[in-house]
Amino acid sequence: VCWCAIVGQQSEQKGAQHTSLGSPCVQCDDAGCHIILSGSQRVQIFTVGEMAEVQKAESVVSIAVDFGTAYSGYCFKFRKSKQIRMPKWGLEIGYDTLKTPTCILFDENKQFLNFGYDAIETYNRHKSKEEAKRLYLFDNFKMELYGKLNRALMISAKNGKKMRAIKVFSESLKFMKDHALDKIREHTAGMEYSACEATWVLTVPAIWSPAAKQFMREAAVQAGLIRDFDHERLIVALEPEAASVWCKQLPYDGFLEGDLGESDKIEDEPETQYMVVDCGGGTIDITVHEVMEGGRLKELHKVSGNNMGGQTVDKNFREFLRKTLTEDVFDEFEEKYPTELYRLMCDFSVCKRSGSNGMVQCPICFSTDSRGKTATRLICSESVYAQAAVLKGAVTFSTQPNIIQSRISLYTYGISTSEQFDEIKHKGRSSFENRDGVKFCNCRFYFFVKKDESIRFDEDREFSFSTVERDQTELNFRFYRTESKTVQYVDEEGVEEFGLIRVELPTAKKSREQSVRLKIKFGFTEMMATITDRKGNKTDAKLDFMTESLVL
Ligand SMILES: Nc1ncnc2c1ncn2[C@@H]1O[C@H](COP(=O)(O)OP(=O)(O)OP(=O)(O)O)[C@@H](O)[C@H]1O
Ligand SMILES: [Mg+2]
């Protein structure tokens, strides 16, 4: 007997009919665990024994992964310990950092080679242009998830060749996972822990779209952090929120001026309001929180930010070099010496963080009258302390996901629903007739939440409905968002379709329409939907922000 991890999926496998999660699959020939593809969806089948094993595994450790545009890292904390551990990176090559560059290297057959400093080192060892060109080196790829996104997204390596983005992301996460589990083994005198004994936290920029969060979740499943059916083992945390969770337990001293009251820590002083600005490589993310009684946080202003992270400086520096050296010379340099250019850009980045005047040396002579070196001076500063805030806050968040008590909605969210067609009210709007000849208008906007509304982290917004056809066993709701707070129909200007909710009605009876409640949580870091039938049976409803029908 097999179990299907994706509700309602009809598998391409001969004879396999998948039903809702938790019900045994009927007529399945093959009881082995394997992965099959159905359209663009990945469907995983597990034997009953395996699934039970994964679900009963106790989460003994929390592992938070900060997958940054420029640098990535992780930390872990055992449930029963207060200590948060974070590995040091780059020691073998003279660095000592809390994160490693987000660079991943594949060989010419697209097989994973290295990640981080090791990826750069390996790439740089390939001295000749031809050798380097055969390898696939990716850096700065996190920002590919900003803006339009779909599962088939391809991204370009340094050599100009393309690979599937989901592979690049999932191999990066797999590296982090394996590294973390190895480190945990080292710290526990060789005790073996598997990924399913951990609760994973993956941090994402606050400005990430639901599609980008879903993309990261799917990459995490492919990387083996969690199994499809065990989605609760992965918490998607917002980077500036995680940083805020860390900041709130810092001493008051040094943060506020004037009368500090009796409290030692920010979280001990209700009504304290503060802003966290996370200036990363790709994004700048901002949150504004107020400390509530008990130390939990309330979001005062919706998360905001932009894509003007530190790497826009790197891009501009590159453009500056191109203009200074002339485009022809620069392009020839890039073509002939890709590794040298790469090294130069790395030096530039290191130089920005050095906290003092720095020198970026150009490894070749650009013109006959040049002295052979080109240098640029920079003055910058940074605190090592701040670097760990996102990770340490994220691991804390995993044990207290309710720590952010409420959030402000970025948009007005709703679905399109059908109501009986009224020739005057619905004039000119799209309609359809059911099999009993009843005409419906199908573009009514049903509000779940309005823009700027404060929603508790655990608050459900509900929609009760009856099926249009008697024998309906599944239905799809189109999910919409808009900046408007007074929208009435989904065909109005400014209303954007951005997701699909698939609802399976497992207890469908042919004789009557079904009454069901769709509940969606909007106050957490990801939206979550459940379906409750008349008898109170609950199932997860699949929210899909990357369906192919959507142009995002
Ligand atoms: N002192 C500094 N002054 C200016 N820029 C700096 C300084 N230190 C680091 N940077 C830049 O900050 C970026 C790295 O910051 P960080 O590690 O927070 O980013 P990230 O987490 O990788 O990115 P993101 O969170 O946007 O995905 C790099 O672009 C780096 O060049
Ligand atoms: Mg970051």
The parts where pLDDT drops under 50 for at least 5 residues are 1-43, 367-381
CATH hierarchy: architecture of the largest domain = 2-Layer Sandwich
- Per DSSP, the total helix count is 11
- Which structural class do the helices and strands define? alpha+beta
In this entry the ligands are: adenosine-5'-triphosphate, magnesium ion
Tell me the Rg in angstroms.
26 Å
Which percent bin holds the helix content?
10-25%
Distance between the termini: 39 Å
Indicate how many domains the architecture comprises.
3
CATH topology of the largest domain: Nucleotidyltransferase, domain 5
**CATH homologous superfamily placement of the largest domain:** ATPase, nucleotide binding domain
| Strand adjacency order, main sheet | 19-20-18-23-24-27-26-25-22
C-alpha geometry: globular
**Mean pLDDT level:** 81
CATH domain class of the largest domain = Alpha Beta
Major sheet characteristics: 9 strands, antiparallel
Strand share of the residues?
A: 25-35%
Please report the total strand number as a whole number: 27
